[in-house]
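[Discussion] Sanity-checking designs against the backbone

I'm trying to build intuition for which residues belong where. Below is a structure token string of 446 positions. I'd appreciate it if someone posts a full sequence so I can compare it with mine line by line.
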């Protein structure tokens, strides 16, 4: 059979042959193309290189630039706006490093992966190279890196005390001055993936406030402050009531730069000293109406309210720190019978050195009176004037001096070794006996 006749009889052979040839040629073209181009879905260190050749990747890198979005904050209004600057890859020496690993990826992908895709991110070293010093220089040249034109971030802070509210946290305010190290790290990461833009605000590349409203130290400080000013302490001095609360305590508090809190002890001491000066009566002079009806001034003596203001200040500060609200009695060295005048109350002994006569009042009623003999004036043993309290009472005591040792049945000292006692050795009392034949300072009584 002739060839011509054969093809007439088998007409389908020619189209099939042509199709087969096209397929073979296509396969060859695809094979050749795939050997030099990355399969779709391929990433290298996060860079999408789908359908690219190594040379195309190198060209893209050579033309690369990144838009850097920055913020600008108005210093007065704190309004926020944005602007962009560009960093070129060529300005930081961006280039493909060792290209061999890229060719190795192409070789490993082959025809099939190119056809079906290769959704894989290959991690290789030295894909991109750039000069870190040049990058740092470009970052320093960004407008946002200039502190002279920028607006500083403002830390969260503690608002001043407000009556009824106490203390509250004032939120921080962001600035627009870049943290150059953080910015370099953000841009390095973006460049490594050949990203076309980066928003520095979202990447937290700006200098941060030292304290935020979520800072534990601020929360702890406000909790402590409100515990202090929430304390209410009441002092009762007779009819006078002194209330200590947040309106005064807030002025005693120091908030340090690191937002830690302390009570100013000198302020507490000053307050307690004010109480001491106003309500203590020790060592004061007193107006006194005698049993004879005269009003005299009694000078000296150690009787009266005597506050231990240093210890009281210490304990008061400690109570404020715990936040314990309650009525408080000051710490005293000694107390008197009552607050106000007279502080000795209505049970007392009036010793009239001029009249050499004493009166004993109990609950305001005269119980007993008696002549006595006081200290010998001629020998300088005068009984000291003043207001005193009875130190103690003793039966059957022995009084000992420089040249005497005398037993007595009743002994009531009021000023060290001077006191009231019986004097059985005397037959008379009162008058002017004391001037030449008086005691060593004691009040001798029948």
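Best answer:
Here's mine. Compare freely.
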């Amino acid at each position: 059979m002739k060839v011509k006749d054969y093809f007439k009889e088998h007409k389908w052979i020619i189209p099939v042959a042509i199709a087969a040839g096209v397929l073979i040629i296509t396969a060859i073209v695809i094979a050749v193309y795939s050997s030099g181009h990355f399969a779709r879905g391929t990433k290298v260190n996060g860079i999408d290189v789908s359908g690219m050749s190594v040379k195309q990747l190198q060209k893209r890198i050579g033309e690369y630039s990144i838009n850097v979005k920055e913020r600008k904050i108005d210093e007065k209004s704190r309004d926020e706006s944005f602007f962009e600057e560009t960093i070129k890859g060529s300005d930081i020496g961006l280039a493909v490093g060792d290209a061999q690993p890229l060719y190795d990826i192409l070789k490993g992908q082959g025809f099939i992966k190119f056809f079906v895709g290769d959704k894989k991110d290959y991690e290789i070293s030295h894909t991109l190279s750039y000069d870190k010093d040049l990058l740092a220089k470009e970052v320093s040249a960004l407008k946002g890196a200039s502190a002279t034109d920028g607006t500083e971030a403002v830390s969260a802070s503690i608002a001043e005390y407000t009556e009824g509210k106490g203390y509250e946290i004032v939120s921080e305010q962001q600035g627009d001055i870049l943290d150059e190290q953080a910015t370099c790290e953000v841009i390095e990461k973006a460049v490594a993936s050949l990203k076309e833009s980066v928003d520095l605000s979202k990447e937290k590349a700006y200098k941060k406030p030292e304290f935020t409203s979520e800072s534990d130290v601020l929360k702890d400080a406000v909790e402590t402050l409100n515990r202090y000013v929430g304390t209410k302490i009441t002092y009762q001095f007779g009819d006078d009531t002194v209330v200590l609360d947040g309106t005064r305590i807030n002025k005693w508090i120091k908030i340090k730069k690191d937002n830690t809190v302390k009570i100013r002890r000198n302020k507490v001491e000053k307050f307690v000293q004010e109480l001491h000066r106003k309500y203590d009566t020790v060592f004061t002079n007193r107006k006194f109406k005698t049993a004879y009806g005269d009003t005299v001034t009694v000078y000296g003596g150690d009787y009266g309210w005597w506050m231990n203001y240093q210890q009281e200040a210490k304990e008061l500060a400690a109570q404020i720190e715990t936040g314990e609200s309650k009525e408080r009695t000051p710490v005293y060295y000694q107390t008197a019978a009552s607050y106000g005048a007279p502080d000795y109350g209505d049970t007392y002994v009036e010793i009239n050195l001029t009249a050499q006569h004493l009166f004993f009042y109990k609950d305001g009623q005269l119980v007993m009176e008696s002549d006595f003999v006081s200290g010998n004036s001629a020998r300088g043993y005068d009984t000291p004037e003043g207001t005193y309290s009875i130190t103690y009472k003793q039966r059957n005591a022995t009084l000992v001096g420089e040249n005497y040792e005398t037993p007595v049945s009743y002994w009531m000292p009021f000023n060290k070794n001077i006191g009231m006692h019986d004097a059985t050795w005397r037959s008379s009392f009162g008058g002017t006996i004391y001037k030449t034949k008086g005691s060593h300072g004691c009040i001798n009584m029948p």
